[in-house]
Write a structure and sequence with these properties.
The complex is a heterodimer of chains A (848) and B (107).
Chain A lengths: L3 H15 L26 H12 L7 H9 L5 H11 L9 E3 L2 E3 L1 H11 L9 E2 L1 H5 L1 H19 L15 H9 L7 H8 L5 H12 L6 H9 L3 H13 L5 H19 L10 E2 L9 H11 L7 H11 L7 H20 L14 E6 L2 H11 L4 E6 L7 E4 L7 E3 L8 E7 L4 H26 L3 H22 L1 H15 L5 E3 L1 H4 L2 H14 L9 E8 L8 H4 L10 H11 L2 H8 L10 E8 L4 E4 L10 H23 L11 H12 L16 E4 L14 E4 L10 H8 L1 H17 L1 H4 L7 E4 L3 E4 L11 H4 E2 L2 E2 L6 E6 L2 H10 L1 H8 L3 E6 L7 E4 L2 E4 H5 L3
Parallel strand pairs in A: 5-6, 5-11, 7-9, 11-12, 14-15, 14-20, 20-21
Antiparallel strand pairs in A: 1-2, 3-4, 7-8, 9-10, 12-13, 16-17, 18-19, 21-22, 22-23
Helix pairs in contact in A: 1-11, 3-16, 4-16, 5-14, 7-13, 8-13, 9-13, 10-13, 14-15, 17-26, 18-19, 19-20, 20-27, 22-25, 26-27, 32-33
Chain B lengths: L6 E11 L3 H10 L6 E6 L1 E3 L2 E3 L11 E8 L4 H14 L3 E9 L7
Antiparallel strand pairs in B: 1-5, 1-6, 2-5, 3-4
Classes of the chains: A alpha/beta (848), B alpha+beta (107).
C-alpha cells in the first residue's frame, strides 16, 4: 500500500525531474552564461531540440532565413550543404538523377533546391496545461498571480516592504496572503484558505482535482514549469541556495490556482490526460507542396505529375524538420573547415631567448584581439588561461563589504583573500575609505529619498537643480561626464596602494600547488621572460543590469583583477619558487609577475600593484605599458568596425575616445559585443594560432602536450575551461535562435525586479538569457549561432583516455553539443572524434 | 556492547551525478531522515565504464555518494522517491540492514 509519505517523496522526485528542463537562472548581479538546456546534456542535441519544441514551443535551431542570408552572402556554399546532406542522408548520393524541365537533376540538387527555396518551418507547438487548452483566461490568470507572488517573495532587498510572513517559507506565506487577495473571486479565495498545511499535499490534491493520472504527472508539471520558465528557473536556483521556496512549492501554488479557478468554470478534466498540444504554428508544408516549389525553382513552372512525383519521392526521405538541422551543420562546417585549414601544419621554430615579456590572458574570446595587437607591437609572447588563474578565492576589497566568490561556478571557493593597506599606507587607505563612504552615503541618501513615498517632491525641490543638469550631461556629454566623474572620484577618494593577505588565505603547500598547476596547464615551465603579466578582465558599463555577463565568467561574473593579483603575488614568492624547482619549474630570480586588468569596454589595460614592482623592472614595465596602450587603441579601432554608431574610420586615439564615451553613456544599449561570435575553443601552443586573425571568435587555452605527460593538465582543461566555454557558447546560441524563449528581449523596455532579474515591461516572466542587443542589431544577427568547435593538439590516445573517464565529456562530444577535432602534432592530419573512434576530418567534410 | 543491544535500521547508499545530489538530499529531508553523509568526487567502475573521481576545477561533473540511515518504516517512501530518479538518470543504489547504538538519533 502506498503511504502518504511515499506519495510526497515520489512527487518531489517527479518535480525535480521535470525541472531538469529549466535553465539555471542566477540573480542578475552574478549573471553567468550557462547552457539553458544544461539539464538535457545527457541527451543527444537533436533529441534535446525536439524536447524543448514539445515543452516550450521553442526553436532549438537557427531560423532558415538567417542561414539563407549567409548562403546568399557566400558564407555557406553549395559544397557545405552537399557535405551536410551526404553526412545525414548518404543514400541521396546513390540515387539516379531524375528529369525535371527537360534536364537531368541529381537527388542532391533536388535536396539543395528544397533547402534554398522551401517554405521555412513554423515554431513547434508546445504541450499545454488543462487551462491553456480549455480556458486560456485561467492560464493567464495563473501566470499573473504566479509572477506577482514570486516577485514579492524572491525580492532581494529592492522592495520597500518585504512580503509579510516571508520567514515561514513561501507556501505558507502565499497561502495566507492569497487567501485574502481581493483580486481573486471569493470562491477561489475560499479554496485557497482550505488548502493543506504542506505544499506537497496541496500539489497532490490539485493534481487529483485536475484529473492528472500518475503516469502523466511529470509531463504535466513540465507544462506548468515552462509557462513562466524564467521565474521557475530562478525558483529552482533559490531552492538549492537559500531555501524558503523550491520547485515543488512553486508548482503547488500554480496547480492550486489552476484547480481553484477551473472549479469555477467547470472545465475540470474527469479522465485521461488533461494536457494536450497547442496549435499555434502553421501546418507543415506537405511533400507535394515542397515538390511544387522545388520543381519551380529548377525551372519547371508547370511540372508534369511524373516530374512532381519524382521530386516528391526524393523529398519524402528528408523530413521538413531536418532542413534547419542541415543548414546548421553546413554553417558550422563552413567555419570549421576554414579554421582548420588556416592552422599551420609544420612545427614552430624554437626560440632561443625569452621574449621581452609574456602576457597571460583569460581564454575569453575578447582576449584574442588584445593578444594579436600586442604581439604586433614588439617581441611579446602571449598565453591563454582561465581568468581566475587557478586561484578559487572569496575576495573582500579594502572597503570590507561582502566577500564575492571569484572562481568558476563549477567549484566552491576555499581561500579567503582580503585587500589591506600596503605597509606604511594606512593613512592614505583611510582617506580613500572615508571618501568612498561619503560618496556612497550621498548616493544612497539620494536614492532613498527618490524611492520614499513622501520625499520625492522635497528632493526635486532641493536637488533638482543639480540632478537635471547631471542627467543631461550623462546623456549628451557621456565622454566628458565620465572623465569628470573619474577625476572627482580620484580627488575625493584617491586610490591607496594595497596588498592581499596571501599568507592568511593559503598555506604554502596550497600556494605551491596552485602555482604548479597554473604553469603546467598553460605550458609555461621554461623560457620565462623578465616580465610576466597575468591579465584578468572586466567591463565598465553604465546602467546595465547585464554587467556581470560582460565580466569574467571564470571569476564567477566578477572582474578578474583580484585573481590576477593573488596569482602574481604567489608566483613572486621566493618560497614558492624554491619549492617549484623541485617540480622542474625553475623561475629565474630576475622574473617578475605583474597583475593587470583588461577593460573590454574601454580597451584599456591597467597594470596593477605598481608599488610592488622592483626598481630593476620599471623601465621594462613602462615600455610594456606603452605597447599595451598602442595595442588597446588598435583594438578599439577594430571593434569600432561593428559597434553601432561608432566612427567607421577612426584613428586609435579617436576610437579610444569613442569606446570610452559609450562605456559611460547610461543610454547606450551596445556598450560592447561581449562574446558574440564565439565559435571555437583551441587547446594548444600559441604557435598554432600566432599569425592568424581569429576575429575574436575563439577561446584560446595554451597547452603543451610534451610537458603534460600524464594528461592531468589536459583533463583539467577539458573538464573545466572547455565546459565553461560550452556554457557561454550555448547561452549565445540559444539566446540567438529563440530570443523570445531563451533570450531576454530588448534592453529598451527592461525593468529590474527584486534585484534578481529583469522583466520586459512591468510584469510577466523573469527574462532568461542574453538581451537582443547582445546578439543582434535591428533584424540582423551579430552572433552567428553555431555549436562550439573544440580543437586540441595532443596525442589522440590521451584524449580518448580522458573522454572515457569523464561522463561530462562523453555527453558533450558524443551527444553533439560540442564537436572535437584533434591531431597529435602539427604535421599530422586533423581527426574528428566520434563515439566509434577517430575519423579523418577531410574524408568526412571534404577539402576546399 | 553486543549486537543484541543495537537497534536494527536500514542503510541506503546511493551514487549519483553531482547535479542530482541536491535532489537526493531534498528527498532525504522529505521522508524525515535526520541526517546523511555525502562524499563528493567518488570514482569507480560501473555499467557505463570507469568514472573519474575528483577533478581539479569541476566539482559538478563528478559522482557523489550519499549515505543515510532510516527506520524501516521510512524505507518505502525513500524508495518511492529514488526509483523514478534512478530510472531517469545514471546512478546506483544499495540498501542494506544496519545496526545503530543510538536509535533516537535516527527517528
Amino acid at each position: 500500500m502506498v503511504t502518504a509519505l511515499a506519495d510526497h517523496a515520489w512527487l518531489r522526485t517527479e518535480a525535480a525531474l521535470a525541472a531538469r528542463i529549466l535553465a539555471v537562472n542566477w540573480p542578475i548581479d552574478t549573471f553567468i552564461a550557462v547552457n539553458p538546456l544544461g539539464g538535457l546534456e545527457d541527451l543527444p542535441f537533436d533529441e534535446a531540440v525536439t524536447l524543448i519544441g514539445d515543452a516550450f514551443g521553442a526553436n532549438g535551431l537557427p531560423a532558415e532565413r538567417h542561414l539563407r542570408t549567409a548562403y546568399q552572402e557566400g558564407r555557406i556554399t553549395d559544397q557545405d550543404l552537399t557535405n551536410a546532406l551526404s553526412r545525414r542522408f548518404p543514400e541521396l548520393l546513390n540515387r539516379a538523377p531524375i528529369s525535371v524541365a527537360g534536364r537531368q537533376v541529381s537527388a542532391v540538387a533536388v535536396a539543395l533546391s528544397d533547402l534554398t527555396h522551401g517554405a521555412p518551418a513554423d515554431r513547434p507547438d508546445r504541450t499545454v496545461t488543462l487551462s491553456e487548452r480549455t480556458a486560456p483566461a485561467v492560464a493567464d490568470a495563473v501566470d499573473g498571480h504566479t509572477a506577482k507572488w514570486c516577485a514579492a517573495f524572491l525580492d532581494a532587498g529592492q522592495a520597500a516592504w518585504a512580503m509579510p510572513g516571508r520567514e515561514r517559507g513561501f507556501y505558507l506565506a502565499w497561502r495566507d496572503l492569497a487567501g485574502r487577495d481581493r483580486s481573486l473571486p471569493g470562491r477561489v479565495r475560499t479554496r485557497i484558505r482550505a488548502l493543506p498545511d504542506t505544499a506537497d499535499a496541496a500539489a497532490l490534491a490539485a493534481l487529483t482535482a485536475l484529473g492528472v493520472p500518475r503516469s502523466a504527472v511529470r509531463t504535466y508539471l513540465t507544462t506548468h514549469l515552462t509557462r513562466l520558465p524564467g521565474w521557475a528557473a530562478h525558483v529552482a536556483w533559490r531552492g538549492e541556495h537559500d531555501g524558503g521556496i523550491d520547485v515543488l512549492t512553486y508548482l503547488s501554488m500554480r496547480l492550486s490556482y489552476e484547480s481553484a479557478f477551473l472549479f469555477l468554470t467547470s472545465h475540470r478534466s474527469t479522465r485521461g490526460d488533461p494536457g494536450g498540444r497547442a496549435v499555434t504554428g502553421g501546418v507543415p508544408a506537405t511533400t507535394a507542396e515542397r515538390a511544387a516549389r522545388v520543381a519551380a525553382a529548377l525551372g519547371a513552372g508547370r511540372a508534369s505529375n511524373s516530374e512532381l512525383a519524382a521530386v516528391a519521392e526524393i523529398l519524402w526521405t528528408i523530413p521538413v524538420t531536418a532542413r534547419a538541422r542541415l543548414w546548421l551543420e553546413a554553417f558550422e562546417n563552413s567555419y570549421r573547415d576554414r579554421l582548420l585549414t588556416s592552422l599551420p601544419t609544420s612545427p614552430a621554430a624554437t626560440r632561443k631567448d625569452p621574449p621581452a615579456a609574456q602576457l597571460v590572458c583569460c581564454i575569453d574570446v575578447r582576449s584574442e584581439g588584445l593578444r594579436r595587437h600586442l604581439e604586433a607591437t614588439g617581441d611579446y609572447e602571449t598565453l591563454g588561461f582561465a581568468g581566475f588563474f587557478a586561484v578559487a578565492i572569496r575576495f573582500q576589497d579594502l572597503a570590507g563589504g561582502g566577500a564575492s566568490s571569484s572562481c568558476p561556478v563549477l567549484i566552491m571557493p576555499r581561500n579567503d583573500i582580503r585587500e589591506v593597506p600596503a605597509p606604511g599606507e594606512e593613512a592614505r587607505a583611510e582617506r580613500q575609505l572615508v571618501g568612498r563612504r561619503a560618496l556612497a552615503g550621498a548616493q544612497e541618501a539620494f536614492h532613498t529619498a527618490k524611492d520614499d513615498m513622501s520625499a520625492p517632491f522635497a528632493l526635486a525641490e532641493g536637488a533638482g537643480w543639480v540632478a537635471g543638469p547631471v542627467a543631461a550631461a550623462k546623456t549628451l556629454l557621456a565622454g566628458p561626464y565620465g572623465t569628470l566623474r573619474r577625476r572627482v572620484l580620484q580627488l575625493v577618494a584617491p586610490t591607496a596602494p594595497s596588498v592581499l593577505t596571501i599568507d592568511q588565505g593559503f598555506t604554502l603547500d596550497e600556494q605551491v600547488l596552485f602555482a604548479r598547476v597554473a604553469l603546467t596547464m598553460m605550458g609555461l615551465t621554461r623560457g620565462f621572460a623578465k616580465l610576466i603579466v597575468l591579465c584578468g578582465h572586466g567591463s565598465s558599463t553604465e546602467n546595465n543590469p547585464y554587467q556581470a555577463a560582460l565580466d569574467c565568467g571564470a571569476c564567477g561574473g566578477h572582474r578578474g583583477a583580484p585573481n590576477a593579483r593573488t596569482a602574481a603575488a604567489i608566483l613572486n614568492r621566493p618560497e614558492v619558487r624554491e619549492r617549484l624547482t623541485g617540480s622542474g619549474i625553475d623561475i629565474p630570480t630576475g622574473t617578475w609577475f605583474v597583475a593587470a586588468e583588461h577593460d573590454t569596454a574601454l580597451d584599456q589595460i591597467t597594470l596593477l600593484d605598481p608599488h610592488l614592482v622592483p626598481a630593476g623592472h620599471r623601465a621594462a614595465l613602462d615600455s610594456l605599458a606603452a605597447d599595451l596602450a598602442t595595442a588597446g587603441g588598435n583594438l578599439a579601432v577594430e571593434r569600432c568596425a561593428n559597434l553601432p554608431g561608432a566612427p567607421r574610420r577612426p584613428t586609435p586615439r579617436s576610437a579610444a575616445a569613442h569606446v570610452r564615451a559609450r562605456a559611460t553613456d547610461w543610454a547606450q544599449v551596445f556598450p560592447e559585443w561581449g562574446l558574440a561570435g564565439n565559435a571555437a575553443f583551441i587547446v594548444g601552443p600559441r604557435s598554432l594560432t600566432r599569425d592568424l586573425d581569429l576575429h575574436r571568435r575563439v577561446f584560446l587555452h595554451s597547452y603543451d602536450a610534451e610537458i603534460d605527460t600524464d594528461g592531468t593538465a589536459l583533463e583539467t582543461i577539458l573538464t573545466a575551461p572547455l565546459v565553461v566555454a560550452q556554457w557561454i557558447n550555448c547561452q549565445y546560441y540559444f539566446s540567438t535562435v529563440d530570443q523570445e524563449m531563451f533570450g531576454a528581449g530588448s534592453k529598451t523596455i527592461h525593468n529590474v525586479v527584486g534585484g534578481i532579474g529583469v522583466l520586459s515591461g512591468h510584469n510577466g516572466d523573469l527574462q532568461l538569457g542574453l538581451p537582443w542587443q547582445s546578439v543582434g542589431n535591428g533584424r540582423q544577427l551579430i552572433h552567428e549561432p553555431m555549436r562550439l568547435f573544440a580543437v586540441v593538439q595532443a596525442p589522440l590516445d590521451r584524449i580518448d583516455r580522458i573522454v572515457a573517464q569523464n561522463t561530462v565529456l562523453q555527453n558533450l562530444f558524443h551527444n553533439e553539443w560540442v564537436t572535437l577535432a584533434a591531431r597529435d602534432r602539427p604535421e599530422t592530419p586533423w581527426h574528428r572524434h566520434t563515439p566509434a573512434g577517430w575519423t579523418g576530418w577531410t574524408t568526412t567534410e571534404g577539402t576546399r | 556492547m553486543t549486537r543484541d543491544q543495537l537497534s536494527k535500521m536500514t542503510k541506503l547508499e546511493v551514487v549519483v551525478p553531482g547535479a542530482a545530489a541536491p535532489g537526493v538530499r531534498a528527498l532525504f529531508h522529505t521522508i524525515g531522515a535526520t541526517g546523511f553523509t555525502s562524499v563528493s568526487g567518488v570514482s569507480g567502475l560501473g555499467h557505463h565504464g570507469y568514472h573519474q573521481g575528483r577533478l581539479l576545477f569541476n566539482e559538478q561533473a563528478t559522482l557523489e555518494l550519499l549515505i543515510t540511515v532510516v527506520p524501516d518504516d521510512k524505507v518505502e517512501a525513500l524508495l518511492a522517491g529514488l526509483r523514478p530518479l534512478l530510472q531517469a538518470s545514471s546512478g546506483v543504489m544499495f540498501l542494506s540492514d544496519t545496526f545503530v547504538s543510538r536509535p533516537e538519533y535516527f527517528t
